[in-house]
Amino acid sequence: MSRIARAETPLTSLASSSRLLLAVIGAASLAACAQSPVGRQKADLAATSRQAAIERPHRVAAFHPHPVSRARVPDETADAKPTALRGVASFYSDTETASGEKFDKDEMTAAHPTLPFGTRLRVTDVSSGRFVTVRVNDRGPFVRGRVVDISPSAAEALGMLDKGVANVRLDVVQ
Known about the structure:
Layout: H1 2-35, H2 37-55, E1 85-91, E2 109-111, E3 120-125, E4 131-138, E5 146-150, H3 152-158, E6 165-173
Parallel strand pairs: 1-5, 2-4
Antiparallel strand pairs: 1-6, 2-5, 3-4, 3-6
């Protein structure tokens, strides 16, 4: 019986080693697939879409194949004058303006974040009723809560040099 056992041992060891080799190759190829960019991209995409569906369920309507058409209602206020803007004004001094002009403290100028250069504004102090007309030639103010920066001469005309700031109403003058 020992002869038979000896004869089967090389065959058994060959079969075992071939199985082991196949298992190692299979594991290596699975590991390579898990590290491939395509596999990662699909996994990242699936996670992102699930997260987006949870966080923004209303975004699903954006993927509709046909855009939803809505009837356009005519805007009756389109012909009306723009409404006045209220907020806090301050005055400033600078060396050069965003429009490229040299800053002149004696001119009636202003800085506004969005209005086009050259726009004329009537700045009215709501507490005193005094107003001054200024021309936008700079960008600003860059302080939260402020709607306009005006030149020192305009601030003097409004009587706000001592206070530094004033509650104002802005009206666009064409």
